[in-house]
Amino acid sequence: MSGGVPGRVAVIGLGAMGGGIASALLLAGYPVTVFNRTRAKAARFEAAGATVADSAGQAVREADVVLLSLADEAAVEQVLFGVLADHLRPGQHVIDTSTVSPAYAREAGTRMSARGLCRVEACVVGNPQMAANGQLRVYTAGDPADVQAVHAVLEAMSQSVVHLGEAGRASTLKLAFNLLLGVQTAGLAEAVQLAEAAGLDRGLLLDALNASGWRSPVLSFRSRFMREREYAPAGFRSELMHKDLRLAQDEAAAHKICLPVTDTVLDRYAEVLSAGRGDEDAAVVVDV
Q1: pLDDT in tens, the chain (288 residues)
Q2: Got the DSSP string for 55-85?
Q3: Active-site annotation holds for 256
Q4: Where, residue-wise, is CATH 1.10.1040.10 in the chain?
Q5: By three-state DSSP, how is residue 213 classified?
Q6: Catalytic residue among 41, 174, 243, 256
Q7: Domain 9-166's class?
Q8: Strand, coil or helix: 97
């Protein structure tokens, strides 16, 4: 990316966040190539000017920077090391925004480095609309030189970029954020359930909450799903919430600490998954 000309960015994974990031990069003037296993999801990006690749390998061949937005470690393992590693060029940078465990983040960085490739750990905080508007908050970890090499891309998708130091730290921070999101969402759900059981209208409670000192952007965003009792399309799928709470639980165990509140909330989301509602927004916990 030299001469002031934006380099091509390949975005792999067009879920709620990945799709938002692709939109923000297009608005910022980047040439963007996209790939998603379900090709239908790529149609709107093609209409907005993106190039749609037939495979992940094809997507990265002409890219200066590759950005991953995948569901979990298994997906990263399959796509990054099972497919892309054989198509990436030495020195090519991969921005990985997938939420994984700190241990896996460190391991993936080491394995990429051994291949002459650069993995930038870039955990993003925000919702899909913030992603589409280029208003995410990005926290990076790993080699500062690698982060600097892709800083322009990170800036195009965010309102701030903060480097945290060694590999794994950004993943730890993301798990801490999502732990709090899960606990707050479950707490809001229980407040709604209590009010409704006592005869109060759900909308009345949520209006009162939004006008009170307990109001927050996070709770307001989830309350919109609860108010309408419509949980799709999801801002943050319950399946991913369960996954991130489990990762937080595992990280706590590695440090020999207990997270009893998180344990309880994890059980609540296990019930959501058992009810077959894992693809719905995490706010659906109120109705399970």
Answers
A1: 443 446 999 999 999 999 999 999 999 999 999 999 988 889 999 999 999 999 999 999 999 999 999 999 999 999 999 999 999 999 999 999 999 999 999 999 999 999 999 999 999 999 999 999 999 999 999 999 999 999 999 999 999 999 999 999 999 999 999 999 999 999 999 999 999 999 999 999 999 999 999 999 999 999 999 999 999 999 999 999 999 999 999 999 999 999 999 999 999 999 999 999 999 999 999 999
A2: SHHHHHHT-SEEEE--SSHHHHIIIIITTGG
A3: no
A4: 171-287
A5: coil
A6: 174
A7: alpha beta
A8: coil
Degrees, nearest 5: CA angle 281-240-35 = 95
Class of domain 171-287: mainly alpha
Residue 269's alpha-carbon distances to 8, 98, 242, 280, in angstroms, are: 39, 20, 6, 11
> What's the Cα-to-Cα distance from 136 to each of 40, 152, 187, 256, 263, rounded to whole Å?
25, 14, 25, 32, 28
Q: What are 80's two structure tokens?
A: 């990054």
The pTM for the full model equals 0.93
